[in-house]
UniProtKB/TrEMBL annotation, chains A, B:
The organism's place on the tree of life at top rank: Bacteria
PANTHER family reported for this sequence: NICOTINATE PHOSPHORIBOSYLTRANSFERASE, NICOTINATE PHOSPHORIBOSYLTRANSFERASE PNCB1
Segments of this protein annotated with the region Disordered: 328-372
Primary role: Catalyzes the first step in the biosynthesis of NAD from nicotinic acid, the ATP-dependent synthesis of beta-nicotinate D-ribonucleotide from nicotinate and 5-phospho-D-ribose 1-phosphate.
GO molecular function terms noted in the UniProt entry: glycosyltransferase activity; nicotinate phosphoribosyltransferase activity
Reactions that this protein is recorded to catalyse: 5-phospho-alpha-D-ribose 1-diphosphate + nicotinate + ATP + H2O = nicotinate beta-D-ribonucleotide + ADP + phosphate + diphosphate
Domain spans labelled Nicotinate/nicotinamide phosphoribosyltransferase: 150-332
Name the UniProt record assigns to this protein: Nicotinate phosphoribosyltransferase
Post-translational changes noted in the entry: Transiently phosphorylated on a His residue during the reaction cycle. Phosphorylation strongly increases the affinity for substrates and increases the rate of nicotinate D-ribonucleotide production. Dephosphorylation regenerates the low-affinity form of the enzyme, leading to product release.
Lineage: Bacteria, Bacillati, Actinomycetota, Actinomycetes, Kineosporiales
Length: 430, 430
């Protein structure tokens, strides 16, 4: 186990020291993770990273070496307290793969202030990253429809973020990843084609293709745009025969090139050879390729950078102290104090209409309401096994079906459903 | 040691398998890392991550467990080859803290194809992340001038990316980081204030301030915008006395609030109390605060997301095979084949004028030329100790001084100096 305890902002621990000294550290507190708003123009968020958060909380422990590195920052009392630290509070939250909207309490951490405050940074790091990638990936998966999506962005992001990004992309509907660590850690299918370097290494394109087919079989994907695409496709079929699995085109006007490639492949009898395209694709480019004869996509940079929204903008806010709601001065209703209980309201047809948040109470149940929070940790112990990654993937797929039709539009707009915050049981949603 | 070997795209290893099978894997190759262009409108790039790259290359080894995870993907011959893998080629590159421009060969990897191709993904992951953050950080440091900059973005990015981002920010001129792991791993000064949660935890703001001052001394920084800023500052000085270290304001129109806070602090006799501001600051917001009475900044989200350019866009390209230049069909001069040797040309005044790249040869030396590449690994062994982080920080500071004056402008523009690619020794730069 590698401790996650230093993946923390210094002020968490100095606040801890001050709170231990004056006794307030033992006050019962509730912290909530939520987004005040969705990234600009996005219509929904996707919860991802819950499983990683729970592992990080489990591994949030301070061994002697680690405490030594904090000597000089913290006093002895605080160091002793940290030496014994193990999270013994409770956590509930939205399931991985659930949708979120402004104010949705996607994670609720209860415990003493001291117990809960130290987790802020690592919890937010994980959720802000994974939710950002999953949201972008979900839009791409919608744009790609039934066509397979290969995640291949590892080289464009931090090497460990790449592994988490692969996981989030798979959760949100990608088919496979190029990242071997993600394959090993999360049992995500891995795939890959080849690089221009492999063709350039050989004296001719034909020799490169022969080597690849000899090693990986005719079902492989040959990269045909190193020199001339038409010549490349002719050589590919000549070398591999009409049973060639696929060709990949990584540059140029992909919509035009795909049509030409399809005609050429068909004329060569390679009617079953698929066409995979890549090269600076994002959800808009994928949507623009809907009518093109493309059989699969490789997506890299835009996925791992959240396609313009590299962080989900989630915050970890203290909302209750000893049962009393607390909040910073603010004009926003979704940031008001008090522990939120969330349900998603639906029409009889199953279409979602509202994210309803009760502040300090559970909203009166109506037909079609679906409670959104599930227990994750109870008194320091896991509440049970989490759904596995395929189950979370299915959860998201089903949740997306409930959105009003314009909730899946790629264009900038309002959240797909409004958030209704009920301040007391007497208020009625909408 | 944690192996970095699976932080790799599957196709690197399937290309390896094909190249081992047909013998081309043993061909002597040169790969170069460069950016075809700078992120949109940026005038310079910053090299960061070199030290992390060399550690990743050292740790790129396959133990039996790891090979087991690749069974089914690769054949026995390839698995045996990987079991013995240790990079025995050579690496040279730009020093950490050096500037880069389109085409600059910031890292050059030589070795057999098999030896060098497998490093592509992890090398690019590290450099694309760290260079992106350092470039954004450098612009922020320019905008902040002499005022201290605290890096506090950990919560808005992947938990491990956060540690690397702290390092890159410090390299580029930030003063300290909130991230404790970065402090422990890289000896970066850590700092921090407190969160709104700490005030909300207490029954009154005064009690929170008293607790913080009791624990951390009057030199601490009190967060004064939880409720009302004017009341918060009055309470802060009342509790801590005029020796109060600093107040932090995290919201609102910071330019206006800083003036009011300064007047109020001075009127209370707290003339030495500093004003630290934070809250969605980026390089433009920092520049806009130049005239405000601000003594320090906390920067988070925009730093860790590269302020609009979350990846540096660097590629790892095969440029020579057995001494022969190779390149994909392209219209760009900076992507032509052949190993590049780089010098930066300067006027007698010391102002940089050109990034000069010789393709396959060293550009004829002129007065004021500075060679840019240094040996990093020779035949698998480190070429020597790398400069430490403070030295790299100083390297960048000096390099920035050489830029033409408009090279430091924050507005969008062309690269600060042009890249001149010499295709033969007979060509002369400009």
């Amino acid at each position: 186990m590698v401790s996650t305890a230093l993946l923390t902002d210094r002020y968490e621990l100095t606040m801890l020291q001050a709170a231990l000294a004056d006794g307030t550290g033992e006050r019962a507190c509730t912290f909530e993770v939520f987004g005040r708003r969705l990234p600009e123009g996005r219509r929904y968020g996707v919860v991802a990273g819950t499983a990683r958060v729970l592992d990080a909380v489990r591994d949030f422990t301070f061994d002697p070496d680690l405490l030594t590195s904090l000597r000089g920052v913290l006093d002895e009392r605080t160091l002793d307290w940290l030496a014994a630290y193990r999270f013994t509070g409770s956590i509930e939250g939205y399931a991985e793969g659930e949708l979120w909207f402004p104010g949705s309490p996607i994670l609720t951490v209860t415990g003493t202030f001291a117990q809960a405050v130290v987790l802020e940074t690592v919890v937010l790091s994980i959720l802000n990253h994974d939710c950002a990638i999953a949201a972008a990936a979900s839009r791409m998966a919608q744009a790609a429809g039934d066509r397979p999506l290969i995640e291949m962005g590892s080289r464009r992001t931090h090497e460990q973020a790449a592994v988490a990004a692969s996981r989030a992309a798979y959760l949100a509907g990608f088919t496979s990843t190029s990242n071997l660590q993600a394959g090993a850690s999360y049992a995500i299918p891995t795939s890959g084609t080849s690089a221009h370097a492999f063709t350039l290494l050989h004296d001719t394109e034909a020799e490169a293709f022969r080597a690849q087919v000899a090693a990986l079989g005719a079902g492989t994907t040959l990269l045909v745009d190193t020199y001339d695409i038409t010549a490349g496709i002719a050589t590919a079929v000549e070398v591999a025969g009409p049973a060639l699995g696929a060709v990949r085109i990584d540059s140029g006007d992909l919509a035009v090139l795909a049509v030409q490639a399809r005609e050429q492949l068909d004329s060569l009898g390679a009617t079953g050879t698929r066409i995979v395209v890549s090269g600076d694709l994002d959800e808009y480019a994928l949507a623009a390729l809907r009518a093109a004869p493309v059989d699969g996509y490789g997506v890299g940079t835009s996925l791992v950078t959240g396609s313009g929204a590299p962080t989900a903008g989630l915050v970890y806010k203290l909302v209750e102290v000893e049962g009393r709601p607390v909040a910073k001065r603010s004009t926003s209703k979704v940031t008001q104090g008090g522990r939120k209980t969330a349900v998603r309201r639906h029409r009889p047809t199953g279409t979602a209409t509202d994210e309803v948040l009760g502040t300090g109470f559970t909203p009166p149940r109506e037909p079609g309401d679906r409670p959104l929070q599930v227990p994750l940790v109870v008194d320091g112990e896991r509440a049970g096994d989490l759904p596995d990654l395929p189950a979370s993937r299915e959860h998201l797929r089903r949740a997306l079906v409930t959105l009003p039709w314009d909730g899946l539009a790629l264009s900038k707009g309002e959240p797909a459903i409004p958030t209704t915050v009920l301040a007391s049981e007497r208020e009625v949603a909408r």
